[in-house]
Amino acid sequence: MKIKSMSILAMSVLLAGCCCDTPQEMPAEVVCQPTITPGSCNDFVKNVGDRVFFEFDKSLISDASRSTLQKQAEWLNQYPGYKVTILGHCDERGTSDYNLALGERRAQAAYEILVSCGVAPSRITKCSKGKEDPIVAGSNEEAWAQNRVAISLLMKDVAVAPACAVVPVASPDQPPL
């Protein structure tokens, strides 16, 4: 009984901090989330997807990753005020030099899809992170799978607006392929 009371109290505290104006406006099944503005960095991350995953020791783009990159290209073509940096990451296995080269190939593979879908090459930069900057810490398949990734980071074109960057944080909504 005491645990149930504590659970109800905890839920009340959480709901009090929600973004909704009044409790009666919020249906029970709705989880309060911040509004995502179309054309924003959050829009890109949440509605398009900012990362594509790779198999171990590969830089080939899967069908699912190709679809994500095509959506990225559509978004970038719709919002030309953004530039993108593609960060190629690897898991911790292998030498630093080998993984820097593999990260570069992964970033290049993503770059080629974006360009083939109409994004101007001048709006895209590539950077290999190799294994030096893991997205997820750990020495297991789950962590390795999250680190075999190319992440597209957005920045507002400096001539158009101040900088806007997406922080590369592992997303549980995008499992590895």
If you had to describe this structure to a student in words, what would you say it looks like?
By secondary structure, this protein is α+β, with helices and mostly antiparallel strands. The protein has two domains: 1-33; 39-156, 2-Layer Sandwich (60s Ribosomal Protein L30, Chain: A). The protein has five helices and four strands; from the N terminus they run ααβαβαβαβ. The chain has helices at residues 2-16, 41-48, 63-78, 96-116, 141-147; strands at residues 51-53, 82-89, 124-130, 149-156. Strands 1-4-2-3 form a four-stranded mixed beta sheet. α3 (63-78) crosses α4 (96-116). The longest helix has 21 residues, at 96-116. The model is unreliable at 1-32 and 160-177 (pLDDT under 50).
Distance between the termini: 44 Å
Radius of gyration: 20 Å
Give the name of the CATH architecture of the largest domain. Answer: 2-Layer Sandwich
State the order of secondary-structure elements, H for helix, E for strand: HHEHEHEHE
Helical segment tally? 5
General shape: globular
Strand adjacency order, main sheet: 1-4-2-3
Q: Classify the beta-strand content into a percent band.
A: 5-15%
| Domain module tally | 2
Q: Total number of β-strand segments?
A: 4
Instruction: Output the CATH class name of the largest domain.
Output: Alpha Beta
Query: Residue ranges: pLDDT <50 for 5 or more in a row?
Result: 1-32, 160-177
- Considering DSSP H and I runs of 4 or more, what fraction of the residues is helical? 25-40%
